[in-house]
Amino acid sequence: MDHIGIMCWEASIELLERVFFIRYEDLKKEPCFHTKRLAEFLGLPFSTDKEGESLVSKLVELCSFKNLSNLDVNKIGSHSGFGFLVIENKIFFREGQIDDSQNYLESEMMDHLDQVTEERFKKFHLTAFSSEDDEKSDVSIAMQF
């Protein structure tokens, strides 16, 4: 799978205007701001008047974790998209909270995942943001160079 990551990263350097980076933490912190960024990236910006702002807010609410996780299809629905295995849709929803992994993984596993991530990022000359960086940075990208 590393070769796919390398190809994607090389493409993102060559075609920077065609790759959109966003971190879940940033999206959670400022959903309207990043929704507008995404729309602009796609070439479909919202209008800057009150109506446009209202539309952004409505869209963010409609696509919110709370709204999507409470839809009947996601609470009681299922699908068999994995061959013979039927999977309940609710399995795809946890709490939607930043750092929620600490409720599911032991600290040793989280440390191991962090280490593997850092090693993989080094191949691309990237550094993952730490929670300390979130406090210092006002730049909203997935990774820093």
UniProtKB/TrEMBL annotation:
Record EC number: 2.8.2.-
Residue ranges of domain Sulfotransferase in the record: 10-124
Alphabetized UniProt keyword annotations: Transferase
Protein name: Sulfotransferase
Family label: Belongs to the sulfotransferase 1 family.
Listed GO MF terms: sulfotransferase activity
GN (gene name): LOC113715823
Transferase keyword on record: yes
InterPro entries from the UniProt entry: P-loop_NTPase, Sulfotransferase_dom
Taxonomic lineage from the root: Eukaryota, Viridiplantae, Streptophyta, Embryophyta, Tracheophyta
A Pfam family it matches: Sulfotransfer_1
Keyword Ubl conjugation applies: no
